Amino acid sequence: MTATTTRTTRTTETAPDRADRPEAVGAGRGFGRLLVVTGAAGLLASWVITLDKFKLLEDPSFTPACSLNPVVSCGSIMKSEQAAAFGFPNPMLGLVAYGMVICVGAGLLAGARYRRWFWLGLNAGTVFGVGFCTWLQFQSLYRIGALCLWCCLAWVATLVMFCYVTTHNITQRLLPAPEGLRRGLTEFHWVAPLLWTGSIGMLVLTRWWEFWTG
């Protein structure tokens, strides 16, 4: 009787501890592939912009290959103050961040499972990323007055990444949300990134409407 009581007491005492440490959560292969693809797209864009930035520093007369016309002008973006918002070229931040996303996606493809704090940390990183990209979009369209095609690729990759990481965390109950929202995101997860990307495309179209139609 004493041994049974002792085991019962230990079980009762350790149960709250297990509740405080939620089980690790994995994800489907589709989500893992999405993180790898979007991370690779952002990494490619960051890599190309970084190389062109170095060439521009070596030779101020250098013209990046993606500088096609007065509007699509990567050189104008690279020479702006906004291109080094934190005191160093922005794409250097992308080299680290997108590389980490690829590693997370590759881990999921290998069957990795992550704790809640990890998923929330990833979500926080994508919130920062999409917020920073939104600021860069505004600066590009309405302050610098030029577009960088590689930057656009990074923007789309980041917003898709943010939407699907957030959707995953909500549907897996890692983030609080109404049950109706969870069901809606499970079935219509593609709506937010599609509308968001389309909205950016419309802003670009209307910003230089006369140039595109002239």
Automatic annotation (TrEMBL):
<keyword id="KW-1015">Disulfide bond</keyword>
<feature type="region of interest" description="Disordered">
    <location>
        <begin position="1"/>
        <end position="24"/>
    </location>
</feature>
<feature type="transmembrane region" description="Helical">
    <location>
        <begin position="117"/>
        <end position="138"/>
    </location>
</feature>
<dbReference type="InterPro" id="IPR041714">
    <property type="entry name" value="VKOR_Actinobacteria"/>
</dbReference>
<feature type="compositionally biased region" description="Low complexity">
    <location>
        <begin position="1"/>
        <end position="14"/>
    </location>
</feature>
<keyword id="KW-0874">Quinone</keyword>
<feature type="domain" description="Vitamin K epoxide reductase">
    <location>
        <begin position="28"/>
        <end position="169"/>
    </location>
</feature>
<protein>
    <submittedName>
        <fullName>Vitamin K epoxide reductase family protein</fullName>
    </submittedName>
</protein>
<feature type="transmembrane region" description="Helical">
    <location>
        <begin position="144"/>
        <end position="167"/>
    </location>
</feature>
<dbReference type="InterPro" id="IPR038354">
    <property type="entry name" value="VKOR_sf"/>
</dbReference>
<comment type="similarity">
    <text>Belongs to the VKOR family.</text>
</comment>
<dbReference type="Pfam" id="PF07884">
    <property type="entry name" value="VKOR"/>
</dbReference>
<keyword id="KW-0812">Transmembrane</keyword>
<keyword id="KW-1133">Transmembrane helix</keyword>
<dbReference type="InterPro" id="IPR012932">
    <property type="entry name" value="VKOR"/>
</dbReference>
<keyword id="KW-0472">Membrane</keyword>
<keyword id="KW-0676">Redox-active center</keyword>
<keyword id="KW-0560">Oxidoreductase</keyword>
<feature type="transmembrane region" description="Helical">
    <location>
        <begin position="92"/>
        <end position="110"/>
    </location>
</feature>
<feature type="transmembrane region" description="Helical">
    <location>
        <begin position="188"/>
        <end position="209"/>
    </location>
</feature>
<feature type="transmembrane region" description="Helical">
    <location>
        <begin position="31"/>
        <end position="49"/>
    </location>
</feature>
